[in-house]
Fold this sequence. Notes:
Two copies of one chain form a homodimer.
Chain A: E1 2-7, H1 15-31, E2 36-38, H2 56-71, E3 77-85, E4 94-102, E5 105-111, E6 136-138, E7 141-147, H3 171-174, E8 181-186, H4 194-209, E9 213-217, E10 219-222, E11 225-228, E12 232-234, E13 240-243, E14 250-255, H5 271-290, E15 295-299, H6 303-316, E16 321-325, H7 333-346, E17 349-352, H8 356-370, H9 377-398, E18 401-404, H10 408-413, E19 426-427, H11 434-444, H12 453-457, H13 470-473, H14 477-489, H15 494-499, H16 504-516, H17 518-522
Parallel strand pairs in A: 1-2, 2-3, 7-8, 8-9, 15-16, 15-18, 16-17, 18-19
Antiparallel strand pairs in A: 1-14, 3-4, 4-5, 6-7, 9-12, 10-11, 12-13
Amino acid sequence: xxxxxxxxxxxxxxxxxxxxxxxxxxxxxxxxxxxxxxxxxxxxxxxxxxxxxxxxxxxxxxxxxxxxxxxxxxxxxxxxxxxxxxxxxxxxxxxxxxxxxxxxxxxxxxxxxxxxxxxxxxxxxxxxxxxxxxxxxxxxxxxxxxxxxxxxxxxxxxxxxxxxxxxxxxxxxxxxxxxxxxxxxxxxxxxxxxxxxxxxxxxxxxxxxxxxxxxxxxxxxxxxxxxxxxxxxxxxxxxxxxxxxxxxxxxxxxxxxxxxxxxxxxxxxxxxxxxxxxxxxxxxxxxxxxxxxxxxxxxxxxxxxxxxxxxxxxxxxxxxxxxxxxxxxxxxxxxxxxxxxxxxxxxxxxxxxxxxxxxxxxxxxxxxxxxxxxxxxxxxxxxxxxxxxxxxxxxxxxxxxxxxxxxxxxxxxxxxxxxxxxxxxxxxxxxxxxxxxxxxxxxxxxxxxxxxxxxxxxxxxxxxxxxxxxxxxxxxxxxxxxxxxxxxxxxxxxxxxxxxxxxxxxxxxxxxxxxxxxxxxxxxxxxxxxxxxxxxxxxxxxxxxxxxx
Amino acid sequence: xxxxxxxxxxxxxxxxxxxxxxxxxxxxxxxxxxxxxxxxxxxxxxxxxxxxxxxxxxxxxxxxxxxxxxxxxxxxxxxxxxxxxxxxxxxxxxxxxxxxxxxxxxxxxxxxxxxxxxxxxxxxxxxxxxxxxxxxxxxxxxxxxxxxxxxxxxxxxxxxxxxxxxxxxxxxxxxxxxxxxxxxxxxxxxxxxxxxxxxxxxxxxxxxxxxxxxxxxxxxxxxxxxxxxxxxxxxxxxxxxxxxxxxxxxxxxxxxxxxxxxxxxxxxxxxxxxxxxxxxxxxxxxxxxxxxxxxxxxxxxxxxxxxxxxxxxxxxxxxxxxxxxxxxxxxxxxxxxxxxxxxxxxxxxxxxxxxxxxxxxxxxxxxxxxxxxxxxxxxxxxxxxxxxxxxxxxxxxxxxxxxxxxxxxxxxxxxxxxxxxxxxxxxxxxxxxxxxxxxxxxxxxxxxxxxxxxxxxxxxxxxxxxxxxxxxxxxxxxxxxxxxxxxxxxxxxxxxxxxxxxxxxxxxxxxxxxxxxxxxxxxxxxxxxxxxxxxxxxxxxxxxxxxxx
Lengths: 549, 549
């Protein structure tokens, strides 16, 4: 059997464009004399559609689109992800469905059994789990057709209290008849750790059932979530025999009679390279899918805004990126010179908007109320918020999108000003620790200096009071990031972090800062998700609560 | 059997305070010679604990707290909501549990079967559903012990595609032995429609099984969610024989030998009264549980900020509320006079901070960049954002919490400035349509003028350009709110709204505004939830998407 794997970039809710893409690829597969062409999970509507799934018109449009696509399935079978209405009188009203299309119509519908409902996933919010298990016969081959999480039945409970598994059902084990191949259609989001976990799961299933596993993922970015593609085929020995591209659309053909593919592309991106590519997809899809073209960034001369600017240039083109320099009386000389050097290196336009006059006007008006108080957080925040006013004014006036430049370390400990430097339509680095920002900067400079070396080597500072350095208020970033990672991603308790070798006082202080700043993160822009635990939808903490445990 | 119903206000994660409250009420019940004392769902940790449930320490502390409480159960049985670790090797790691405590220890654990996972609920994110059904014997009585949603097995799928029910299991029907009474421990949040729905469910169950239903809800506000209490007992005829207070803690005793209670308090709050009480609880719990005491509010002279100020005064006391008046060159005379009248009526302190100088300074700095462009949204937003800078500066300087004053109609159509009037720690009216704000104002004035009549009668205006009126950009609020309610709460499609009698162009325009402004609401402060569908956690829309369906 010749199978075409279609790794495509879908836009949520854009049924016309998604259908066209699917139909074009069906035609392409026909031209290559494929028996079967496979598309990813919820391909018809894009993943994740969230509460669009509660909209009747959305569901009916999705169903009609599948029927139209079926018309194009003559002489070929297609597997397309979509939604079907639960015909039963009880249970959630939808099924997450793999439609099998042939001879011009829907031949069969296979439903998803394991519905991820953790971290950023909410599938049980919408879908009823499948309870019927059988194979699908396609071109004389018995196919075990599964949807993404269905192969993840053995995954442990995250941060487990015991050695337990998250699911009580193993969909493949429930299939009583023999099958020749496993096909899995997926919408598996990128994180730095996900790639290996995903490969292991596929290899384990191939070896356990002694059949090839054909895996088709979407490649896409939809607001926070980035899908890296990397569709693949694993042979019954657990060897990868076909690997598709990372972070871009791809089309490949797997012939079940050929178990070894010679021209296997080798993915060689390191951590920084992967982060770079993932962010690039996240950024460019955000703009492209919303019809935006231009970005504005506040350039402080520091490394975070420099990295964001370079990424924006690579995603949108230098002509579409504007940098705003907003020095204050506390800004050091190199703030401007480093930002100007960056802009020159990147070839982007800048504007200089000093904040002193506006800050002074605000402070003068406040003077009768603030009289007798000392310079403090309130005054620091006025500076950050005036910068926010300038950036948004520029964005509103010229139809640019403001890119947020806060990194994950800052977001974690609240080292940022709400309605000031936390502003933006999208947070580019909100899931990138400061120590990873340095790696990204090095990666961006891999072929020569684009980010000024001085922005990389100088001590980080918010420059909101004279001589201020991040290190005055925060542990050094190596320590801070290590503690944050254990607390946020590994869910270590304070005692466990201390036991792992970190100073008790530093741990206490760090954890306290993380917990006290939930309220700020609640109002953060959407953050491109790059780690297994990003701030945002995947991490839902109470605001009004006692955190003393 | 004498049963004490304890309707208490718990703080999420405050195990010491929650335990003390529970133990005090056990003692109180002992003094009244009760056989059984009942506390609400997840009483030990407060509801909803969200991702605290993924924290090992949190779970272990909760378990230890239950064991300590059990020590106090001598000569009495207590039912206390908590969490238990799933001992099985498969499935979610926790059970949402009703602990039965007696003779100094945990006698039995009953698990929740139906796990609400829709709107603001995410229980399947954390809990494994129960699959074992039996009665619990307490003081010679066979009790069907259930947790909240377990009695809601017959509820229809929301906005159903068919006449289907949301759940496939009916927990009470699964109990094969006879039972004498149903006890339901709940954490059922308030919404204007919820009270009647809840009563119907309890009455239906009492009549179906011919037994009394004892229902114990929590009374509390935890960030967005407000729990109104209204615990009750329904007799086998479906009559309410005991009704506990709305929006306040309460303790009542029900004797199963007495099926009619004479001194039934009558709840007589109308819609506005309920909204008022709910907001009051939401506001005061937000402050009390966070240890905050003081609020600051921008007073525009309009009705929204006036209503928020009055509510804040009633929740926190006039001494703890400060109003900031921030006129611009576009402000009408009555903006100041109405705000001053309000402050005089409420007895709150005000500060006058004219924004002209700061706006001018910002515009002067921007002049080289903006030169040749016309006054527009960018300039309007500068004014709103400078007000935001003043309000946050005051809040930061004096440790006040800024209360947001946007209403649901504005939030829906994006008639508000991100990082400007959208600022705040908590949105008080974000789930109150403009037409309901008028009802609230009348209610607040029920014993005499507190909100100036002119603030109520004048035409609403954002006053961001000369002579601006809301009606210039928006449909009249009666029409707008009716359309919004159908679209957001009833999930009508555009065609269905038009078919319901609204002008096609107005419907199209309104729906477009709602959809185009998801990005603003993404960064909104938490919104007190008062309707079945509030903006925030209960409504999860994709940002990057096509809404053309």
